Amino acid sequence: MATAADIIAWLNDVLDIPGHPDFGGAHNGVQVEPPDQISVVATAVDACAHSAEAAREAGAQMLLVHHGMFWGGVQPVTRERYRLLSALLAAPCGLYSAHLPLDSHELYGNNAILADRLGLDRIEPFGTFEGCAVGRIGDTSLDGPEAAAARLGFEIVEAVPPVRAGRLAVVSGNGGSLVREAALVGASILLTGEVDHHDRVLARDLGLGIWCGGHYQTETVGVRALGQALAEAFDVTHVPLDLPTGG
Q1: Whole domain around residue 197: which residue ranges?
Q2: How many CB atoms lie within 10 A of CB 154?
Q3: Does this model's pTM top 0.85?
């Protein structure tokens, strides 16, 4: 059991929430106020009706997510948004979101963890969003997407075959906007969650291979690692929620 104030202060400090840049709709930090005392923290990739209801069923007093509830801007609290808020308020369960602060984190970040599991050498920051490097790039000896999948524990699809081996860039989620940057910094392969059609066309022209692991799968690792670290720091129970989207 721990106070919500202590947990929130720890998260804000570890993730540098006040000082970290992000997209306008991210609204990192507390999005729904939790009760004063917390014994169970649930983690999920997305704030949605399903994750809120699963958190309530798990007895959580806080739901920690990567994608918060304000991406679409101000919208009426109806249908799925009503279900989301109703589940949280009925529990009661707070909502805390960390987007780019979690992508870029050196210990608990999606990309730092993926790069480590892939066994990359000479790892450096890569991939600029909102003025912040969120991805990683390093040397690799992996000889195909099957070898990467064996390291990561989920399927990797080769969207664009690489023309050479050597340097592997990693960015979770949708890395399509970083195709050109990956090629410019000498990557031979970009491993990401998903890319669009035109990103594949550009990658092929630039001689950059694309390996896709799914937006959801590539962004499960950070929030779960953060939830586990929080549980160990405060002696609370961590419940990772698995709500895959197939993408």
Answers
A1: 110-215
A2: 14
A3: yes
- What are the residue ranges in the chain where pLDDT is below 70? none
Count of domains for the chain: 2
Segment (H or E) for 210: strand 209-212
Adjacent-strand bridge partners of 11 = none
Same-domain pairing of 130 and 86: no
Residue 116: other Cβ atoms inside 10 A: 16
| CA 73 from centroid of its chain's CA atoms | 20
Instruction: Write the DSSP symbol of residue 186.
Output: T
Domain containing residue 46: CATH number:
3.40.1390.30
Contacts of 56 (CB under 8 A, 6+ apart): 87, 88, 90, 91, 93
CA 5 – CA 64 distance, rounded (Å): 15
Secondary structure element (H or E) that encloses residue 171, with its range: strand 167-174
